[in-house]
Amino acid sequence: MRTRRTWRGVAGAATAIVLVGGGFAVANASTEGVKKSDVGVQRPVNKKAKGVAGVVSAANAFLNTLTSDEQSATLLDFTQANATAWSNLPCGSSCRVGVEFSSLTTDQIAAAEAVLKEALGTGKDTGYQHVLQTLAADDVLASAQATSSAGAPTDAPSDAPTDSASADPSASSTDTAVPTDAPTGAPPSGGTGGGGGGGYGSSQYFMAFLGTPSATGTWQLHFGGHHLAVNITYKDGKVVGASPYFTGVEPSSWTASDGTTVAPLNRFRDGMLKLTASLSTAELAKAKLSESFSDVLLGPNKDGDFPETKEGIKVSELSAKQKKLVLAAMRPWVADADDATAEKLMKTYAKELDQTYVSYSGGTGLDTQGDYVRIDGPSVWIEFVCQDGVVFRDQVHYHTVYRDHTRDYGSEFSFS
User: C-alpha angle with apex 335: 333 to 336, nearest 5 degrees?
Assistant: First the structure.
């Protein structure tokens, strides 16, 4: 049997994933290939395929790098239990399904990367780049926590949130070096453990295919870890659902070794800021929610729990300029799907715009615990909330979720 080096957090200065030339490579994983005696079922690959066929080909190429046991861990039934097994917490395999990156070789990680590159929006400010930055942020978090003093803080509640977020469209650097303002506080409960126990870091991410990747059947690309959940559902060669999609980051921003600022969620935040800044005093009063929020309302395990009554100000009451700002605010989340799917979804949301509502709670600065903004339409549902930092105590971090009232998980399940 081949040997592997399993990532168990960041014990020293090295980080688990080094982002190279727009992709990522495993820094500590074995480069040894799969022995012929271990290889799993081989599937057809067409490197010239495009669109969904290209995603299927990349998925098959990844599966071809895996052993039989790894294929069994990756290729699962498309059941409700498997589809809803995602979280914003660093809870490892206790809350996720699929094969863990910490167990894979460099070549296998590269093949997994190719799946994401085919499936997600490409180019600046779209899905693939955002995923890379999210994984890089989790390595910064893991490294910072490893340099913090041991033991849980005495003032931290036992159910303290364990994630974070933020982003900047101009930030192209993906360096994962620990920022100069690394925290000195103690890490939260949960630690940096690996495997089923979970932890921070890009090695603690999981990939699964629910159903068999195919241009004719129904299946889902299921990828995520702490601060990320990607669920893209395919049916008969088309994308029928690009949600639920959770994204968050801690630290909200950091300085890379080349001096550039990396902030993966700033463009998400900035769209919401422009929208709320456009509202008059009277409009803000209408949009204000009576509830307070310390996290997103429809996070993990909240499938189908959309409020029965829409709240806030109806977009039909806003000016043409403000309506454009509502659509612009939606786009960063939707753009994390492949380009064609994103454009199709945006056209749907534009048609439904007058029946869509905008609301907020806390302040509109999105810089304080409890600041919260929501967009809720006949289809689209987006939430953005601020939380105090957990490891980086001097920063707020963001949690966000994008759902669709009718298209979550490709409409395969009923949650009523």
Answer: 75
Three-class SS state of 155:
coil
What is the phi/psi pair of residue 49, to 5°?
Answer: -65, 145
Read out DSSP for 227-256?
Answer: TEEEEEEEETTEEEE---EEEEESSS-EE-
Q: How far apart are CA 142 and CA 122, in angstroms?
A: 27
Q: Dihedral sign for Cα 61, 337, 295, 392, please.
A: positive
336/242 Cα distance (integer angstroms) = 9
Tell which residue, 138, 132, 84, has the closest CA to residue 299: 84
What residue type is 59 in one-letter code? A
Burial of 259 (0-12, 13-18, 19+ CB in 10 A): exposed
Q: For 381-408, how does the pLDDT look when each residue is reduced to its tens digit (9 = 90+)?
A: 999 999 999 999 889 999 999 999 999 9
Q: Are 34 and 107 in contact, with CB atoms under 8 Å apart?
A: no
User: What's the whole-number mean pLDDT along residues 259-287?
Assistant: 97
**Both structure tokens of 1:** 């049997």
What type of residue sits at position 254? W
**By C-alpha distance, which of 77, 44, 75, 40 is closest to 61?**
44
Closest CA to 272 of 213, 313, 217, 331: 331
Contacts of 407 (CB under 8 A, 6+ apart): 240, 241, 242, 243, 379
Measured CA to CA, the distance from residue 22 to residue 390 in angstroms comes to: 29
Neighbour-count burial of 365, counting CB atoms closer than 10 A to its CB (0-12 exposed, 13-18 middle, 19+ buried): exposed
**Contact between 300 and 85 (Cβ < 8 Å):** no
